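Researcher: Please generate the 3D structure of the following complex. Treat every line as part of one assembly.
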Amino acid sequence: MSRADTRMKVFGAAVALIAEQGYSATTVDAIAERAGVAKGTVFYNFGSKEGLFGALLEHSIGKLAEALSEAAVGSTALERLDAVVLGQLRFFEQYGPFARVLLAEMWRTAWQEAVAQLRARALGVYAEVLRQAADSGEVRADLDVETAATAIFGMVLTVSIERRVMHPERLLEETHATLVELLHGRVR
Amino acid sequence: MSRADTRMKVFGAAVALIAEQGYSATTVDAIAERAGVAKGTVFYNFGSKEGLFGALLEHSIGKLAEALSEAAVGSTALERLDAVVLGQLRFFEQYGPFARVLLAEMWRTAWQEAVAQLRARALGVYAEVLRQAADSGEVRADLDVETAATAIFGMVLTVSIERRVMHPERLLEETHATLVELLHGRVR
DNA sequence: CCTCTTGAACTGACCAGTCAGTACAAATTT
DNA sequence: AAATTTGTACTGACTGGTCAGTTCAAGAGG
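Model: Done. Output below.
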């Protein structure tokens, strides 16, 4: 059992509890108990409750950005956009509780640094693909790619959570089809 | 000063503080102080902190549903959809902190009742308009209107918050144009 | 006088963070 | 190779402070 393993166990317990109850309603005692470590271990590894949460955000946002980057494949920019949407759905299928944490804590000023990372790295993948689509004439050249990136990211994030809460049995591909259809626009 | 006025002052203070810090990090003492009211008054009017929050959600969700319903005007279903998006943007422009509270607490099981109201009344407006669009052939007849309604609602909610945090000076109409453009689909 | 509000004092539960100590493996000394 | 030291990871009882909720006596006002 390496130190890294301990940290991962604590991350897992923390993200699950914070998703259920929110950051400040979640006690370090509860996190330690769920992780199967002593309370002191949490402080030994992360220094403070805030330190733990900061490290958790950083780690998870890194994973998310990586997943979105890797998903962005396709011969046209708009194919890549659809692929990134699917990549985001798949990521939150796997790391479901993190979606809740992100949605709830994303805009809190206390975690500006993590939010900046999220904007630069995860939303950046959407912005980049949209910029390519604008350059190649696949969407209007004057589209506000930053706002559009936030919009799509928020849309997928919300739907990911709704899916887990309301329709956990439904195929991911059906949800993806609905979203892509919305973005492809109306059938005349 | 009627009792209703007192309740509104407390709502205003509570929503502002909860938006900044989250529900459980917000103390009743702080809410009372910000509202300019004695702590005892809060308990006299709402019974408990949870009672206050429940009443706040119910009141605000009612306002939101009303605003979306009233906004849903236009000669075609898709015009009405665009109008509801604008209505939602305007609502959160006016009640900004409530957007944060809603996003953070929307999927928490503790407030199932309020969330059910939200789904039935606010998301219902989107679902209704989309259903009309499907019936009239303006979008594909087999569109999953529930998921699409959640998607659009979440998209607008996220963008509303991003606007307040990142671009408070920008015109609401520009943001609306970007979102409508996304939903209108790609220029060939 | 009845409803509403005030503000202060109190209680008991709860919680972040501390710290002295354990376990143990690797390095160093004898 | 046995004895000792060092460093790292972890432990859990304990502390000092905080907060929701209670109580209540004293107004305010209609």
